[in-house]
Specification:
There is one protein chain. The chain is built from 18 helices and 6 strands. It has 436 residues and is mostly helical. The protein has a 3-stranded antiparallel β-sheet with strand order 1-2-3. It has a 3-stranded antiparallel β-sheet with strand order 4-5-6. Strand 5 and strand 6 form a beta hairpin. Bound molecules: s-citryldethia Coenzyme A (SDX). The site of s-citryldethia Coenzyme A has 21 residues, from loops.
Length: 436
């Protein structure tokens, strides 16, 4: 990766030791950044930024988000245009390679992914170690981490060829591993991938075909899921992507890094929110109970939050949520369940929240997770599979960001510091001398 940090001036910082200057870089889009890499050396002080709300951890050319304007670009292409005109594999190619593929490159990429969808027969034995009621995300963390033990020929991260094979293997095998986690949880036999199906149809068939009856995906449903995968593919330096980058910065192999990303995504404040949002809608149950939950979400003493609402970056409507809402309506219409009660509750909840001063003043809008749960349940997935589907799609972004980090000339092992406010230095006290 060629660094394109464009110095546009400097800022000065005056502290007890004097005044120091730091370069300012201008981005293609978004805020300027102050390069404070020499701050500790020049001033002996650290910055303090818990949650990294004001910290750019890296230079990246992959995804841009404007939270105030509700803009999301993958390699400069607006998310709604990709969702409308592209498909999963083409968008994956764009994220990984930076440009739209020509027909020849598209064919090469599609063939490479298709040829890596199967998993080693030994990998199946990992599933038997889990209880049938294990959360599928627990299975995903375990099985994806175990891939490190199977592909020694593609874990040398200094070899571009091995990085490419590992990347394609990861993207290709996630649907197979995810479908196996689902089948295991419902006590059905695993279904092998087929090379004559596209990425998303293959995944749906591996989930819903049974040995006694094949499954052919309704094109409307498969198109909706393909669109959902595109929406979830990448999102700048979110918690799970930052986890993958930090794990990768130590030189860990890509399979282990993706397993770390899956673990981070599982949290209800992050990728687990789609499961939590649907559970919340089911708990609300009917439109007349919405005010009770709105009041709880506003109550500082109540830990309850409106799941699927709010975002660290978006202080406007999440552009993905708009596409997600349309996909939700398409799926429910195709299934003839537009009067799905949970959709009525979700739409009324959204209407009320968007008019409520608390949510307006805090700029809390629906995020991608608000409508995804209703859609995924209508597609036939149980709630505990929602975050697995998020991880399946986000694997492309994790791999793209991990690959970019490996070749970033400014990259070094991630090692934040802290402000220590614990006990002052003191001597050990033997037991007999300790106060009773
Ligand atoms: C994803 O980072 C990404 O890009 C993530 C993601 C991706 O694609 O990778 O977009 C995917 O994770 C989407 C977010 C899914 N999470 C949820 O829907 C869970 C519910 N949302 C909240 O937990 C919260 O909004 C976060 C975690 C998403 C964002 O939290 P922040 O940025 O740390 O904001 P905050 O917690 O400081 O909240 C600011 C204020 C607080 O009130 P005050 O202390 O200022 O009085 O808003 C309130 C919060 O209490 N608030 C909410 C709320 N979200 C924030 N109040 C009620 N309901 C909510 N959902």
């Amino acid at each position: 990766m060629k660094s394109d940090l464009k110095p546009s001036g400097t800022i000065s910082l005056t502290h007890e030791g004097g005044t120091v200057e730091f370069p300012v870089y201008k981005p293609t889009h978004g805020p300027d950044v102050f390069d404070i890499r020499s701050l500790y050396k020049d001033t002996g002080a650290f910055t303090f930024d818990p949650g990294f709300t004001s910290t750019a951890s890296c230079e990246s050319k992959i995804t841009f988000i404007d939270g105030d304007e509700g803009i999301l670009l993958y390699r400069g292409y607006p998310i709604d245009q990709l969702a409308e005109n592209s498909d999963f594999l083409e968008t994956a190619y764009v994220l990984l390679n930076g440009e739209l593929p020509d027909p020849e490159k598209r064919k090469w990429f599609e063939n490479s992914i298709t040829m890596h969808t199967m998993v080693h027969e030994q990998l199946k034995h990992f599933y038997n170690g889990f209880r049938r009621d294990a959360h599928p995300m627990a299975i995903m963390v375990g099985v994806v981490g175990a891939l490190s033990a199977f592909y020694h020929d593609s874990t040398d991260i200094t070899d571009p060829k091995q990085r490419l094979i590992a990347s394609h293997r990861m993207i290709a095998k996630m649907p197979t591993i995810a479908a196996m986690a689902y089948k295991y949880s419902i006590g059905q036999s695993f279904v092998f991938p087929r090379n004559d199906l596209d990425y998303t149809s293959n995944f749906m068939r591996m989930c819903f075909a049974v040995s006694s009856e094949d499954y052919e995906c309704n094109p409307v449903l498969c198109d909706a899921l393909d669109k959902i995968f595109i929406l979830h593919m990448d999102h700048e330096q979110n918690a799970s992507t930052s986890t993958v980058r930090l794990a990768g910065s130590s030189g860990a192999n890509p399979f282990a890094c993706i397993a770390a990303g899956i673990a981070s995504l599982w949290g209800p404040a992050h990728g687990g929110a789609n499961e939590a949002a649907l559970n919340m809608l089911e708990e609300i149950g009917t439109v007349d109970r919405i005010p009770e939950f709105i009041a709880r979400a506003k109550d500082k003493d109540d830990p309850f939050r409106l799941m699927g609402f709010g975002h660290r970056v978006y202080k406007n409507y999440d552009p993905r949520a708009k596409v997600m809402r349309d996909a939700c309506h398409e799926v429910l219409d195709a299934l003839g369940i537009r009067d799905e009660p949970l959709l009525q509750v979700a739409m009324e909840l959204e209407r009320i929240a968007l008019e409520d001063e608390y949510f307006v003043s805090k700029k809390l809008y629906p995020n991608i997770d608000f409508y995804s749960g209703i859609t995924l349940r209508a597609l036939g997935f149980p709630t505990d599979m929602f975050t697995v589907l998020f991880a399946l799609a986000r694997t492309v972004g994790w791999i793209a960001q991990w690959s970019e980090m490996i070749v970033d000339p400014n990259q070094k092992i991630g090692r934040p510091r802290q402000i220590y406010t614990g006990a002052p230095q003191r001597d050990y006290v033997s037991m007999e001398k300790r106060p009773a």
